[in-house]
Specification:
Keywords: Coiled coil. InterPro entries: DUF6698 (IPR046521). The protein is mainly α. It folds into two domains: 99 residues, no CATH class; 239 residues, no CATH class. Helix content is 60%, strand content 1%. It has 16 helices and two strands. A two-stranded antiparallel ribbon has the order 1-2. The chain is extended.
């Protein structure tokens, strides 16, 4: 015991750390192991976040193509929330509100998991998810722009035989300064060959304002419109179908725009299908990734906007190009399909979409085999008949 403690009459000071000395080497090994565990946890968290980011971005690529080209996802969600909370609506919804709600329905079809995610995520996480979805949508639109920039130029060179071929890598000489592009962009009720029309459009006079409220010639079958029946041939142009196939099936498939398959060409179609089956398999197409088995109106509207942009001479994406508003143009196409004036028009739209589906996906209809349809087929009809015979025999006994 120290002398000072004896002299003072106090007890010796205890060792408050109570540490038991161990090997410094062993302690260092344990510290390293603990740090490695922390690093591994951080890596796992980062990997999980990266997987989520990749998933949301990939899922978002479908949004601009089949849901809404311009409308923010938040607006679609807000409109659906409004309708859920408005139990006794005091007035009928506006055209824009109906368009938003139809967009929300398409959004949930495209992203069926979105309901549950929005319910379980907090506000900050939801905003982060929506930002990533938007990033995916923007990247898809940019990729399609790049693809169609080259393809549309080559298609126009083949379809229109311009004196000077359109360059696939340059847009500055497209639009109305180019005869071939100008003819396709010209409103269908005007005649591009008329020198007064051509000069008026190029000079942008008030008599020839090219706006989104005039259907472009490139949207009509054979690039011709009937002034007395402007619906005839609308949305049935070869260029529009080729653009759709380039985006949703593959650029190579765009060059194979089949006939309607009315029976006269069935042998030829079968031979073509056999040749395709012998070819090497290609990577999964956009339509397969997003589960598209039928052509949808909003996908046609998206394609039309992309074709319009590819034919124009603007080099970066803008909502408004001169007097042409892409947002209203997209809305006009969507409303043409989704808001027909009556039953007869709805039937025509249904037939038009069937025509599109045949053009793009052929004549397979397995998705139309609903339980009600299957119940009326011979296998089930026979089963019902046999059961009825059994019941009759049992009752007679």
């Amino acid at each position: 015991m120290p002398t000072s403690d004896i002299n003072s009459g106090q007890c010796p000071t205890p060792d408050v750390s109570l540490c038991v000395q161990t090997s410094p080497h062993a302690r260092a090994k344990r510290k390293i192991a603990a740090l490695m565990d922390e690093i591994e946890i951080l890596k796992q968290d980062k990997a999980i976040k990266q997987r989520k980011t990749t998933y949301y971005v990939l899922q978002g690529r479908a949004i601009c193509r089949i849901v809404a080209l311009y409308t923010p996802i938040e607006d679609l969600i807000t409109e659906n929330d409004r309708r859920c909370e408005d139990c006794e609506p005091s007035s009928s919804p506006t055209t824009e509100q109906d368009r938003l709600q139809r967009g929300y329905i398409e959004l949930i079809k495209a992203l069926p998991w979105l309901h549950d995610k929005l319910a379980c995520l907090d506000h900050e996480e939801s905003d982060d998810m929506l930002r990533k979805l938007k990033r995916g949508a923007d990247s898809a639109r940019g990729d399609d722009m790049g693809t169609l920039k080259e393809l549309v130029a080559s298609w126009v060179n083949i379809e229109c035989h311009p004196t000077t071929l359109i360059r696939t890598d340059d847009k500055h000489h497209r639009g109305f300064v180019n005869d071939a592009c100008g003819q396709l962009l010209c409103p269908a009720e005007w005649h591009w060959e008329d020198s007064a029309v051509k000069a008026g459009i190029r000079d942008r006079t008030t008599s020839f304002i090219v706006s989104e409220n005039l259907w472009p010639t490139f949207m009509y079958e054979n690039y011709e419109a009937d002034a007395k029946n402007l619906e005839r041939g609308l949305m049935k142009s070869k260029l529009l179908v080729m653009g759709f196939k380039a985006i949703f099936t593959s650029p190579s498939s765009a060059n194979k725009v089949d006939g309607d398959g009315d029976g006269a060409n069935i042998i030829k179609n079968c031979r073509r299908a056999r040749r395709r089956s012998d070819q090497a398999k290609v990577k999964t197409c956009i339509a397969s990734i997003i589960g598209m088995r039928k052509v949808m109106p909003r996908a046609i509207a998206y394609t039309a906007c992309q074709i319009q942009f590819a034919l124009s001479n603007i080099t970066s994406w803008h909502t408004v190009d001169g007097d042409f508003d892409y947002l209203v143009f997209w809305n006009n196409i969507v409303d043409f399909f989704e808001a027909p004036p009556g039953a007869a028009a709805r039937l025509r739209m249904s037939q038009l979409l069937e025509w599109w589906t045949r053009k793009v996906f052929g004549r397979n209809h397995r998705e139309d085999l609903t339980p009600d349809v299957i119940s009326k087929m011979s296998v089930n009809a026979l089963a019902a008949q046999r059961q009825q015979m059994e019941d009759t025999a049992f009752d007679s006994d």
